[in-house]
Amino acid sequence: MKNVLLITDVNFWAKGAGHRMRISSLVEYLSSRVNLYIAYVGVMSVDVENSLESNLKARLWVLEKSKVLSSRGYGQRLKALLKSKSFDTIIIEYIHNTYFLNYINDHVKVILDAHDIISNRTEQFKKFNHGGVLFELSRETEFKIFEVYDYIMVLCEPDYKEIISSINSEKVLLCPHYVKQIKHEPRDTVKTIAFIASEYIPNVDAIAFFLNHCWPIILEKHKVQLHIYGNICNAFDFSTYDSVILKGYVTNLDEAYESIDIVINPVRFGAGLKIKNIEALSYGKPLVTTTHGSRGLDSRENTIFMVADEPEDFINAIASLIENTQLRRTVSKNARKFIKSNFSAKKCFRPLLDIINSPQP
């Protein structure tokens, strides 16, 4: 098997957010198909390290356990490690870690797991008055960096098409997010609507939009509860809203989804593929999201999931699902078929595995 090194500064084992779930899924897939090594860029306690080493089917290297280093410091640590082990492929998580290229041998195949197009995210955040909050890049700079890598990996087709319009299409890998299917039959009566999210700024904006413009009107006509899952519970004041139940972070999403009838994701900005939407569809849950939230998914509205951007449309979409059991069953069935066809492990990660197993360029 090939030797593969994945470099990341994301604590993917904690899950609880889309980017962590994505990397966790990638690690799980690769660890049974290659000799996987992980170089972690960040502080880590001994307890966490021991737990990971026991549970991961990969070799873990923590570049510095007790303090934060400069980029040069981390680079030198990686360079020292690479002297003791040779790799066929190195995967770098996120473009902001590109500085590691300065410490990697030219003869190894290097892949950027870009996740999103950061310049697009930069523009979206500025549009919603959140400029300067996260790492930012101009389009010109980002696409110049793409050219430096042997391959670029992205999660959704719109990003793939945008990148291949500017650089060699053979360098770009479309690798969506793999999810396992778990079948939950829709109940006859809707009791619970749910929003599952991290404290990410677009998620806070999304739930504020929904609670302020949609939820009071929904409650006037329907006896339902809104259950909030994830770290979003600590990032927004829900105390003034009726019938909102804070569930917090849960380790077992299977149990959470058992009690959920409808999932919402009223996200209005951000970038890339929305992992929470893929997860909801994998459980066969009727999903109501926005045009932005549906980016990278099938565009056939109302047959796989429902799309709404304005408050009135969101309210009507949820009402139609609450009042029509057959509609919920149809959407649920179509969602499961859609996930099976488009988000299997083979469909999502086979392009990456083929590149890893291909001869050196």
Topology (elements, then pairings):
Blueprint: E1 3-8, H1 18-31, E2 35-40, H2 46-55, E3 59-62, H3 71-82, E4 89-93, E5 109-115, H4 118-127, H5 139-148, E6 151-154, H6 157-164, E7 172-174, E8 192-196, H7 201-213, H8 215-221, E9 225-229, E10 244-248, H9 253-258, E11 262-265, H10 275-282, E12 287-289, E13 306-307, H11 311-323, H12 325-342, H13 345-357
Parallel strand pairs: 1-2, 1-4, 2-3, 4-5, 5-6, 6-7, 8-9, 8-11, 9-10, 11-12, 12-13
In short:
The protein has 361 residues and is α/β, with parallel strands linked by helices.
Describe the structure in your own words:
The chain has helices at 18-31, 46-55, 71-82, 118-127, 139-148, 157-164, 201-213, 215-221, 253-258, 275-282, 311-323, 325-342, 345-357; strands at residues 3-8, 35-40, 59-62, 89-93, 109-115, 151-154, 172-174, 192-196, 225-229, 244-248, 262-265, 287-289, 306-307. By secondary structure, it is α/β, with parallel strands linked by helices. It folds into 2 domains: 3-178 and 344-357, Rossmann fold; 192-342, Rossmann fold (3-Layer(aba) Sandwich), CATH 3.40.50. The strands form 2 sheets. Strands 3-2-1-4-5-6-7 form a 7-stranded parallel sheet. Strands 10-9-8-11-12-13 form a 6-stranded parallel sheet, with helices on both faces. The longest helix is centred in the last third of the chain and has 18 residues, at 325-342. The two termini are 18 Å apart.
